[in-house]
Structures are given as structure tokens and as C-alpha cells.
Amino acid sequence: MDFDQTVRAFGALGQPARLAAFRELARAGERGLCAGELARMCDAAASTLSFHLADLVAAQLVRNWREGRSVRYAVRAESMRSLLFFLGEDCCQGREDLCPSPTSRITSRAAVAEGELPVVLFLCTENAARSQMAEALLRHRAGSRFVARSAGLRPSRVHPLARTALEEIGVSVDGLRAKDVGELLGKAPIARAFVLCDSADRERRGIVGLSDCERWILPDPAAVTGSRATRLAAFRAVRDELSRRIDDFVARPRRLATSKRNRKRSAS
Asked: Are 92 and 85 in contact (CB under 8 A)?
């Protein structure tokens, strides 16, 4: 990417709607998103989003292709890397104090400071059910010892039956919302992370800060069909299994609240 093209690319990202669309596409990876799905995620009118996507394509930041009746869009990874290389090489001349690795803050914020409560993260793909219940249960059981958080790789919304299953056993659902894991990475020291679904388990392995998650894979209650009673029973079963596992986790020695990665670092 030459200088003029780099200017065009930065200019294309200097608009809120285009930056929001680019962020969602980057999170989606090489598979990308269809235009309609992206419009819903960005809460944008299809015609307006189409205008912004055309600008991202012209700036060579995004590629598109037809798939049946839909058009899919995906980030051009090589262009994204070129922008980062331009900042590190051309602008900062290799000075790490000015232009560190974009993921360096994630690892630098991993260690829990003295007197700081360890953050425990529960990760799923949509952050809709299992991870939300786990967050609420840990906060209810040991909120004075841990900061309970949950997040998703592609968050959607909190399932209403997850709220019901929690409320019926007296667990507060105040503040529960679907969150992207990017809200936490680099901003909070994640002392321990648990992954609760297979799809997130596959994807998180290439994400800095999530490579050493403990696997708590459980069936997705939101996938159960049938009557409301049948579906609620599935949520209750997952809730009860999470409750059991969280009780076991809370009973562990306090030192196990620190991840293996951080213990290795302190030992070195």
C-alpha cells in the first residue's frame, strides 16, 4: 500500500459509521458478513451502510463477493497489516515506545496488582445464556473476592430465559448485557478465563490473552426447542451445572485465581 492509498485508507476509517462497520467485519474474520447481517449489527439502514461499504471497498480495506442473492463483505487482512506497518515503520521508525504491538496492552495488563480483585471472565460466542448465567452466579456467590465478567466473540442479547432461571433462585440480573470481549482485553487484568461453548473454544485459541482458557463446555440451552417449560428446563439444567462448577471454583485456594500464564511470568 503506497502513501496515497494509506491516506485514503485512514480517511475511510475516520468516520463513525465506517469505523463501526470495519470493526464488526474485522471481528468476523475472513468469512465476513452479509450486508443485511452487518446492517443489523451496526443498527444502520441498508442504503446508508451500502454507501459506507463502497467507500471501504474503494479504500482497499474491505473486499466483497456475491454469495447467492447476498453480497458478503470481509476485511482485507493484508491492508489492515499494511496500516499497522506504516505506523510502526514509516511514522515511528521502529520505536516501540511510540508504536508498540497492537496487542501488547493485553499481555501487559494480565497481572493482577496487589490489592486488586482478580477478574474472572466467562466466554461464549454470543454472550447470551451460559456465560451470562455464570457471571451472575459468581457475582452472587463470591462478589467480594472476584470481579465476575462475561463476554462474547459476536455478542447478541441476553436470553430472557437466562434471566428467568437466575431470578427464580434469587440471583440478581441487574446490569447483565451482551458484551464484546474487546471491551475487556487490554482494559482489565483477566486472572482466569473459562470458555463455555465449542465455537468460542475453537476461535479463542488465536486470540492474545485467551489462549489458556479453562474449558467448561456445556450444551446451549438456547438451542432447545419446544414449549416454554421444556426450554426453561434446559436453562435450569445448565444453571445448576454452572452453579456446581462455580462452587468448586470458589472453594479452590486463592492462588489458583491467578492464571498459569501470569504465574510463569512472575517466576521468570
From this structure: no
